[in-house]
Predict the structure.
Amino acid sequence: MLKVVSCRSSVVAVSITTDGAANIHTLAGSPASAVAVAVTVASGVVVAGMVSGSLPAGSTIYLVNAGSIEGSGGNGRGTGVGSVGGDAISAASTSPSTTRPATSSAAAAAVGAAAGRSAAG
């Protein structure tokens, strides 16, 4: 499920290549200090709930989704009311910010800028 493709200048890039749940803090190697994490969900992969986990304050997550990120279903009941399902993405933050690059290359450029280098590396 996890492939760490680079880890330089406080930027950790991970690629999710198999179906399942994802904890970004764990996938990034449980960093102890603020880090930028570039997460790519590969084409055809279904992530069944993604959480930021306990990333340190000041961390940034860049997400490139070529697959699907879905919330979990609730517990159904044969007779009566079932329970609600889970979130597709849950970010634990006191001040979350969301930006949406137009393309994957724009996301790569943002990650490169965070690392202080060009998108080409």
